[in-house]
Amino acid sequence: MAIIARKQAVQAQPQGATVREQLRAMDDSGVVSAFLGGEERAFSELVDRYQTRLLNFIYRTIGDREKAEDLVQEVFVRVYRHLHRFDRSKKFSTWAYTIASNLAKNELRNRSRNPLVLFQTVQKNWQDDDRPLQFEDSTSRPDDMYRKRFLREIVEESVAKLPEHHRNVFILRELEGKSYEEIAEITDCNLGTVKSRLNRARNSFAEIVAPYME
Amino acid sequence: MDCREFREQHLSYVDDTLPGIELVRMQMHLTECPECSRHDATIRRSLMLFRSLPRIEPSPDFSQKLERKLRDARVADAAALHTGRTRRLGAAVTVSSALMLAYIGLSLRQVDTPQDIVLPPVVALAISTEVQPSSGPALEMIAAVPAGLPLWTAALYAEQTPVHFASIESTSAR
User: Fold this and answer.
1) Looking at the complex, does the CB of residue A3 fall below 8 Å from at least one CB of chain B?
2) ipTM, 2 decimals?
3) In chain B, at which residue ranges do the beta strands (DSSP E only) sit?
4) Among A31, A51, A47, which residue's Cα sits nearest to residue A39?
């Protein structure tokens, strides 16, 4: 039965130069089906859709850009290897974020056990020359640019100060725009816990940032 | 509505998920309470600040690195599949050998130890205690030889003496 379905999916693959366009027009579920049907290009479509989102999610969670890229790649390797086991009645994005969230959590746990890594990461975060400066507008005056840059650093540091389980929920909601239900599934918590953590995270974050917003 | 209730419902208020009547109550409290109004403004402004953080983009060699990792993963999976097959084959051979040996062992055991043990009749030999009356000089000959009589006399006696074997009776017993 599964073999027949697979053959049908392969036969139904879009042909020629429009394959990528057709894949782009599909929703996640369709792209996953195409990949499982043997269309390798469908995987590139999934990577295109999620690489930046997952990168930002992991980066904001662990605060280390280089490591965040490694972890995003690991997410895609796991997706590639285990996509055939993915429960297609659920959302692909939730599954991908769950993998990313677990990897980020493991990374933070490893760091807390290894102070050297933590130190190196903190040191890396201080080297700001490598990081994008979109917060600043190049047409602004230098003192204004400095103020904005300072504010951005404060915001980033404030997020990093949140407890890990609060930060995770906070980023998923405020940066990735996930619903409470999706966050509950990704973080493996019940809805009440998600709401409570989000409320506390918002209050803590506002408390830290407030003095700099005056 | 008091401040405590306002703070409890503030999450849903900011996310705009409150039912209409609750929303109106929250708005009314905001107009009445400067403390909660300030709290609401601080939360909203801080969230706006966070949401406007710059998005980072993957580095230019991201795709190449990913492709390399995927290739490695494919190779590792293929190797694992091969190893798995070899192990499965080895396990199958071991199990079938063990089953075969067990079968042979059981078969042999069944041959050696039948369910109903039938003992064969035991045949015992016993020498009759009855001594046949000896006739002739046999006894005398036996007595004569160690007594130093000449051998030829003894041989003569022996020739003349009818051979007498001890009578042996076979008795069967169960």
Assistant:
1) no
2) 0.74
3) 123-127, 168-172
4) A31
Whether A65 sits inside 8 A of B56 (CB atoms) is yes
Tracing tokens 């929920």 back to the chain, one arrives at A169
Kindly report, residue by residue over A82-128, the tens digit of the pLDDT.
988 888 888 999 999 999 999 999 998 888 776 555 444 444 444 44
Asked whether the beta carbons of A55 and A72 are under 8 A apart, the reply is yes
CA distance A47 to A103: 17
**E runs forming strands in B56-111:** none
- Say yes or no: A147 contacts chain B, CB-CB below 8 A: no
B123-127 and B168-172 beta bridge pairing: antiparallel
Whose tokens are 């062992």? That residue is B105
Whole-prediction pTM:
0.66
Cα separation, B24 vs A155, in Å, equals 32
Residues 92-131 in A contacting B (C-alpha not used; CB under 8 Å): 131
Question: Which residue, among A198, A212, A207, has the nearest Cα to B43 in the 3D structure?
Answer: A207
In DSSP terms, A173 is beta-bridged to none
Q: Which two tokens stand for residue A132?
A: 């994008």
End-to-end CA distance of chain A: 65
Identify which of B140, B141, B131, B142 has the alpha carbon closest to the alpha carbon of residue B165.
B131
Contact present, B6 and B36 (Cβ < 8 Å):
yes
Would you say A61 and A104 are in contact if contact means Cβ atoms under 8 Å apart?
A: yes
Count helices and strands in chain B by DSSP H and E runs: 7, 2
Q: Which amino acid is at A46?
A: L
Low-confidence residues of chain B: pLDDT under 70: 111-118, 122-174
pLDDT in tens, A63-82: 889 999 999 999 999 999 99
